[in-house]
Every structure is written in structure tokens, then in C-alpha cells.
Design brief:
alpha/beta, Aspartate Aminotransferase, domain 2, 3 domains, 4-stranded antiparallel sheet, disordered N terminus
């Protein structure tokens, strides 16, 4: 790698060492430490300025920077770290405000004689989420999953709608909002589901939640199935598996194939399961659609045993290869399917808008649960989204994005296949298969330093069982202009582990 001044680096990205004077781009004055190690993680939720501040504090706490030691100028450190000069300046100003460093024109910037650190300096990643969930707060980055394409969203239109709704909310009388969700929004969701997903439901069956996670939590509270077994697709969404465990259910891994969940195998493994958590529209992460025969088998099993089916309709009608299959709830005549959806993949995860469609027999229990424990987002964001849907903008947006995603998915698949990889489109991701000896988790971790955010496949499999290595590459965040360089970089990273 070559930096902006032409000097070669043999260091990992984001890790900077001050070199000997004759080799560096600036001389190291007397009193400056010979090795100042600051790590920059552009995928972290922490700002770059805060990372630099914490790096300096860590160096002081460890003794690398002694009292009176001189720091590099913020211009020089910015050049070394590859960040904007204002970013380093902001970090230095914060440290000066905390009386950790002092700055004077003749003496430069130095560590205070008695730095007021106040408390032990936490490590750089002290506030970072666990590694398994770090992708939720990372980005934006190429190949990132779970988010829509922001470059094609009608942001100005939605901004006006949200501003109007916010003003109306502030001007209205102060009353408690409906914990079930705003009626206007629930009506729009019910109408959309009837048109796009074939679900015949009334607004009273729709409950607005804080995203998919909020919908899942409310559903588990209502079902009260602690200690019982639950079918879980294998491979399947690892956060859903962990959610089952946190709800004190026992996940039973059920294999999937080209027809989706293997219902016969599920009955063999756990005929008395309390529920089955499935992604029938597009299986996550492999992308298969649950066949009609298996849909009938699954609903028949639930009706016969009194089990519940939790349908995670995470991509709704965004089926890229063909017309979207109807929702599983649309063919349920026994009232056993609980339908869950969200607007995270179609509008934005920042809205935190999810919903549950409860069968008639569970409406009263859902009402009680949300009245006491509900966490629906504020009325303004619901009212703005309701108007976005009512005026037809939502359906037009979905049709436009389906064309965009189809083109990006095909371009990404072709680029990977030209490099000799096995790649298939599944939902809004391209699955890149890797030899089992290649550690997909390590590849994904190293890719973050280069602005890439592939997701490893292996954590989607049941822990302790057979796992497959691979990478899930988000289609929505793939810029076609930058696609060749991104694929080249990914190919280079994979080659390091071959």
C-alpha cells in the first residue's frame, strides 16, 4: 500500500507508528514518543475524532505518552491516519478542554504535567457491541446487508412528510398515543398487505412495533411458551435463534433445501414444538421460497398440534427473480400464523417501524401485551409513513427499487463468477460459497478496514453442528461503478486465507 505522500507502508490499515526521523514525512521533535499506536476503525459506531481521543488517552494511561511528552501536530497526525485535519483538531480540542493536553505556539502540543484523566481509560472498543451484532451499527459500507439503497430513496419527499407530521404532533394536545399504533397507519398497513401479500386482515389485527425485534419480543410474550421447543431454520437468522433462547425457548434446528423448511424432518425432530419460526417468502439466507406443498404441511401440523407459526416476512414483496409468493398467512384458514414484517429493508431501519398481524384468536392477548408493555415508535413517524403509503409513493418506490436491485444483483453475481466463485442471488444478497477451510468470519472482519461489509455465512448455522463457509454480500449497498474495485479487493482478501 502507498500513502498519499508516496511512502510505502507495511502496516495494517488504521494502525500508525511514528517512524525514525530520516524515514518519516515529518521530523520527531525531542520529547515525542517513538511509537504512538492509534487504531482507526471506520466501521465502528464511535466517531473518528472520539477514536483518536481515546487512542491518546490510552497512550497516556499506558505510559507511552509521559507528562510533558510532545504530540504530533494535528495536521501531521491527520496525514498519518488518513483522516481529515479537522477530525484530529476536534479530538485535540476535546483533550485540551479536559486538561489532558496543553497547546502553546512555541512548545507545540504536549501532555499536561499532571493530566486530568479522571478515571482509567477504557479500551477503544469498550462501547462497541458484541462482535456478532456489530454489523447492526456499522456502515454505511459496500456489501452491507440489512439496509436499503439510500441513493434512490425519495428523501426530500419523506423529509417534507416527516416535518409536517412532527409539526402536527407538537401542535396537538398532549395525550397518550395508542400503544397498538396510530389507526391511520394500521389502516394503511392492512390495505397494503391485502394488495401486496394477499393477507385479509382488519386494522384491529395490526400492531405497530419497534422494528422486527420489537415484533418478535411482543409475540413471544403473548405466546408464553417458555421451556418448550421451537423449530428454527438451519441455516437461519442467528439473531432470531438467540431471541428464542432469550425467551426461554429451546431452538430445534430444522434443515432447509430448495423447497424451504423441511417440514417432515421438523416433525421427526420435534413433533411437540410450541412454534415454528420461518422465512417462507425468501428463506434467510439461502433465498428459497417455501413450496406450496410444504406450506400446506406446515399449517396442517400447527392446526393438529396447536402449535403457532411465526412468519418472518423480512423482505415482503422484494422478490427479484420472479413475482413474490403470497404470504404464508394468506393461505392460513386455521388462525395459526402470526405474520411479522417491517419497513427496515424497504424504507429505512432508522424508522424502527415493524408490525405484527395477529390471528383473530390472539387479538385480545396482543392488545393486553401492548397496552402494558408496548413500545411503538412515536406518532409522527407513523403518520408520515401512513401518508407516504396513502399517496401511492410507497408502491412506486418498491417497483423502482426492485428494478434497481435486480440490476445490481446480476452485476455482482456476474463479477464474482468471472473470478471463479460460486455465487447465487438469495433475497437482497448474493451468497458467495467458499471452501470450508477458509475462515469466513476472519475474511469479513478484515474486509471492514477497506470499507467492505460482507457478512459471514457460518454463524447462520446451528452452533455445534456442521457449518458451511461463505460470504453474504448485500445487493442494495453495491454501487455498480465501484463494483470492480470492490470485488478485486474482496478477492485479494480471500486469497490471503487460501
Amino acid at each position: 500500500m502507498t500513502d498519499s505522500c508516496g511512502e510505502g507502508r507495511d502496516l495494517a490499515p488504521g494502525k500508525v507508528h511514528l517512524k525514525e526521523p530520516e524515514r518519516d514525512i515529518f521530523a520527531i521533535p525531542w520529547g515525542m514518543p517513538r511509537a504512538l499506536d492509534i487504531r482507526i476503525d471506520r466501521s465502528a459506531a464511535t466517531t473518528l475524532a472520539e477514536q483518536i481521543r481515546l487512542g491518546v488517552l490510552a497512550a497516556i494511561g499506558s505510559g507511552v505518552l509521559a507528562p510533558g511528552a510532545r504530540l504530533p501536530s494535528w495536521q501531521a497526525l491527520a496525514a498519518q491516519l488518513g483522516v481529515a485535519r479537522g477530525t484530529v483538531k476536534s479530538a485535540y480540542e476535546r483533550l485540551a478542554d479536559e486538561q489532558v493536553i496543553v497547546s502553546s505556539r512555541p512548545g507545540g502540543t504536549r501532555v499536561a504535567d499532571h493530566p486530568a484523566t479522571g478515571r482509567p481509560v477504557p479500551p477503544d472498543d469498550a462501547d462497541a457491541p458484541p462482535e456478532l451484532y456489530r454489523h447492526l451499527l456499522a456502515g454505511p459500507a459496500t456489501f452491507q446487508m440489512g439496509v436499503p439503497a439510500s441513493d434512490r430513496f425519495p428523501a426530500s419527499l419523506m423529509g417534507r412528510l416527516r416535518a409536517h407530521a412532527a409539526r402536527a404532533e407538537v401542535a396537538a394536545r398532549a395525550v397518550y398515543p395508542d400503544p397498538r399504533g396510530e389507526l391511520a397507519f394500521r389502516r394503511e398497513v392492512a390495505a397494503h398487505l391485502a394488495l401486496a401479500r394477499g393477507i385479509d386482515c382488519r386494522p384491529s389485527q395490526v400492531f405497530i412495533t419497534a422494528g422486527f425485534a420489537g415484533a418478535l419480543e411482543t409475540t413471544f410474550r403473548v405466546l408464553r411458551a417458555e421451556g418448550r421447543k421451537a423449530w428454527m431454520e438451519n441455516p437461519g437468522f442467528f439473531q432470531s435463534r438467540r431471541a428464542l433462547e432469550l425467551a426461554q425457548l429451546v431452538p430445534v434446528p430444522v434443515p432447509v433445501d430448495d423447497d424451504g423448511l423441511d417440514v417432515v424432518r421438523g416433525i421427526e425432530l420435534a413433533p411437540d414444538a410450541a412454534l415454528a419460526l420461518v422465512t417462507p417468502g425468501q428463506q434467510a439466507p439461502l433465498g428459497a421460497t417455501l413450496s406450496l406443498a410444504r406450506r400446506i404441511e406446515l399449517i396442517a401440523w400447527a392446526a393438529r398440534t396447536g402449535a403457532w407459526i411465526v412468519e418472518d416476512d423480512y423482505l415482503g414483496e422484494l422478490q427479484l427473480r420472479r413475482r413474490a409468493a403470497p404470504a404464508l398467512a394468506s393461505v392460513d384458514r386455521n388462525g395459526r400464523v402470526i405474520h411479522i414484517g417491517s419497513f427496515s429493508k424497504t424504507i429505512s431501519p432508522a424508522l424502527r417501524l415493524g408490525f405484527v398481524v395477529a390471528p383473530e384468536g390472539l387479538v385480545d392477548r396482543f392488545n393486553e401485551a401492548v397496552m402494558c408493555l408496548g413500545s411503538a415508535p412515536g406518532p409522527a413517524v407513523q403518520q408520515a409513513t401512513a401518508r407516504f403509503m396513502h399517496e401511492g409513493h410507497y408502491m412506486r418506490h418498491l417497483r423502482r427499487m426492485k428494478r434497481v436491485y435486480s440490476a445490481r444483483g446480476e452485476a455482482l453475481q456476474a463479477a464474482l463468477e468471472r473470478k471463479g466463485y460460486r455465487a447465487q442471488i438469495g433475497g437482497l444478497a448474493v451468497l458467495l460459497r467458499l471452501p470450508d477451510q477458509i475462515p469466513d468470519i476472519e475474511v469479513a472482519r478484515e474486509a471492514r478496514a477497506w470499507g467492505l461489509a460482507p457478512e459471514p455465512l457460518s454463524p447462520w448455522f446451528q452452533p455445534g453442528g456442521v457449518r458451511q463457509s461463505g460470504l453474504l454480500l448485500g445487493i442494495a449497498t453495491t454501487d455498480e461503478a465501484a463494483l470492480p474495485s470492490a470485488c478485486d479487493r474482496l478477492h485479494e482478501l480471500i486469497g490471503k486465507f487460501s
